[in-house]
Design brief:
The protein is of the alpha/beta class and about 250 residues long. The chain has eight helices and six strands. A six-stranded parallel beta sheet has the order 3-4-2-1-5-6, sandwiched between helices. It is globular and about 75 Å long. The structure holds 3-methylbut-3-enyl trihydrogen diphosphate (2 copies) and magnesium ion. One 3-methylbut-3-enyl trihydrogen diphosphate (IPE) binds near residues 22, 25, 65, 69 and 191.
């Protein structure tokens, strides 16, 4: 297998977004409670972050907790937030060593203050790192993000700070939680579901999709490599024609 690191830069994704799914199924398959799957999923996170850095990704955005995940039992919610807090504390030195910058998207309201504290501490500590950005989507929902952007745009327009005629795609992007980040080139979903589950709907408009049956706790560096190599073989056309030099202007009829 080719090492994705040696791919020419134009064949390598800058930004990989991942829907880390299948923790519950992984645990249940072994007769364990669902939370064991979440706990094991941490090893996968460690592995893909390390590999993302090695390959030279600019950004990796991991879906950790959706705004819809509040529907889960309290016990599972408490465990998930304890795990996230633990991750932020334990991985801090590793992130520093790997020159990773930590970022977060999602609503802060509703998240446990001790999780936010640890997040802020790690984000501040890694703020001047220059390697890969690791963005955690926590309490994130794309529709809520888009509605929030619309609300802020309306506020700015009503206050005379923004001319409605100047609201184009780039301006709109600047109001999203991902302002200043590149759009994902590659979206990976583990555990086989063929849906987006309210993830980065605006930003993945032209992302390449890669869905694997592998459950998140089994996903490792080699699986990320496989996904990136698959991406490298895709022909991204963005509505144009594949790999053609622009043809001369046709002579108009008549
Ligand atoms: C993904 O695994 C983790 C979160 C959504 C927090 P799931 O917990 O959704 O696992 P399945 O889909 O039930 O197997
Ligand atoms: C998406 O997984 C959210 C995260 C991975 C955090 P879900 O397991 O919540 O998605 P659905 O319920 O299958 O759509
Ligand atoms: Mg799931």
């Amino acid at each position: 297998m080719t090492d994705p690191k040696v791919l020419p830069p134009e064949q390598r994704p800058r930004h990989v977004a991942i829907i880390m799914d299948g923790n519950g199924r992984w645990a249940e398959a072994q007769g364990l409670p669902r939370i064991f799957g979440h706990r094991s999923g941490i090893r996968s996170v460690r592995s893909v972050v390390e590999e993302g850095c090695r390959i030279g990704l600019e950004q990796m955005t991991l879906y950790c907790f959706s705004s819809e995940n509040w529907k889960r039992p309290n016990r599972e919610l408490r465990f998930l937030f304890r795990l996230l807090r633990h991750f932020l504390i334990v991985e801090r030195s590793e992130l520093m060593e790997q020159n990773v910058r930590l970022a977060m998207i999602g609503r802060r309201e509703g998240l446990p203050p001790d999780v936010l504290d640890e997040f802020d501490r790690t984000a501040a500590m890694t703020a001047s790192n220059t390697g890969m950005t690791l963005c955690l989507a926590v309490n994130y929902g794309a529709r809520a993000e888009i509605a929030e952007a619309a609300r802020r745009i309306a506020r700015d327009a009503a206050a005379g700070r923004l001319d409605p005629e100047q609201i184009d795609e780039a301006a709109f992007s600047g109001y999203l939680a991902t302002a200043g980040m590149p759009d994902p080139d590659l979206l990976i979903r583990t555990a086989g579901e063929l849906r987006l589950s309210n993830y980065l709907l605006w930003q993945i408009s032209y992302a390449e999709l890669y869905i694997t049956e592998v459950l998140w706790p089994d996903f490792r560096a080699e699986h990320l490599q496989r996904a990136v190599l698959d991406y490298a073989r895709r022909q991204r056309k963005f509505g144009g024609l594949p790999g053609r030099a622009p043809a001369p202007e046709p002579t108009p009829i008549g």
